[in-house]
C-alpha cells in the first residue's frame, strides 16, 4: 500500500487530495498544527470513514521545526510528500508578513529531511499563480517572469526556486505545481468567491442583506479544486520530475462571478453588493490567466468542471448551508452576527 504525507491536510486542497489518494488505496498521513482549537471540519467525514482502518492518520507538526519533519518522515516512511501548508490568504500576508513568508520556508526543511532520508521519496511543492504578479498581459506559462506583489507570493517564489535547486543539485524527484485560482464549496470563507456564495445563501434566507467587497475589476483563472488535486497526483506519477501549470485558460472578473452567482437565484447583484477601499490589497494583482498546455500534453490533464458549473456548485452548497443556519438562529442556537469577511 503506497503512503503519502500531506502538509496542510485540513485545507481545501488537503481535503480533496486526501480524498483522492484514499480512494486510490493510499495510506495517508496529514500534519496539523497544535492549537487550542481543533480545525479538522473539512476532513471530518474522511476521518470517520478511514481513521479506524488506519488509512488516515493525523500528526501534530510545525513546518518551521526541521527536527519534527525529520521525525515524521522517519516514522511514516511515505512514498510521496505533498507540501500544501501555507498561510494562503494574500491580503492577510500583508498584515502578518513574517509568518506568511516563514511558512513557505518549511519547504526547505522538508526537502532537507527527504534528501537525508534512506528512502526515495517524491516531493510536490504547491506553487501559486500569485508568483507572476499579474503584470504580464495574456497567457502565463513556465517561461513567464515571476514578479511577486505580496509577502505570500514572495514566499511562494522562494519555495518554488528551492524545490528546483534541490531537484537539480541532488537528483531528487521534486516537482512544482503552479496552480491558478481553484475554488470549491470547501474554499475558506475569507476568499472572495466563497465570500460571495456564502452571502448569497444568507441573503436568500434573510440572514444577511449586503456583502462588501474590494476590487471588482480584477480577473482570475478560476477552476475546481477537485480537478486540480488530480493534477498534483499525476505530477508525482510522471516518469521524471518537472514543473507544470494547472489552469483553465479562461479569464473571468469578479463582476462576472457576481453576475453569474446572483443570477442562479434570480437576483441582481448590484442591489446587494457594496465596495470599500479597505478590502483592496496594498499592491493589487489585476489579471491572471494560465497556459496549462504542458500539463495536458505530458500529464493528460485538463479541467473537467466549467466555470459555470463551479459557481453553481458553490451557490447550491451555500444555499443549503444557510438554510441550516436559519434553523439554528430560529432555535436561538446561533447568533446572526455576520461581519464582512476579509477579501
Ordered list of secondary-structure elements with their pairings:
Blueprint: E1 3-7, H1 12-23, E2 27-32, H2 44-50, E3 56-60, H3 66-76, E4 80-83, H4 90-95, H5 97-115, E5 122-128, H6 151-170, E6 174-179, E7 182-183, H7 192-204, E8 211-213, E9 219-220, E10 223-224, H8 225-237, E11 243-246, E12 252-253, H9 254-263, E13 273-275, H10 293-299, H11 307-330
Parallel strand pairs: 1-2, 1-4, 2-3, 4-5, 5-6, 6-11, 7-10, 8-13
Antiparallel strand pairs: 9-12
Helix pairs in contact: 1-8, 3-5, 5-6, 7-9, 7-11
What attributes does this structure have?
343 residues; alpha/beta; Rossmann fold; two-stranded parallel ribbon; 13 strands; 41% helix; 15% strand; globular; disordered C terminus
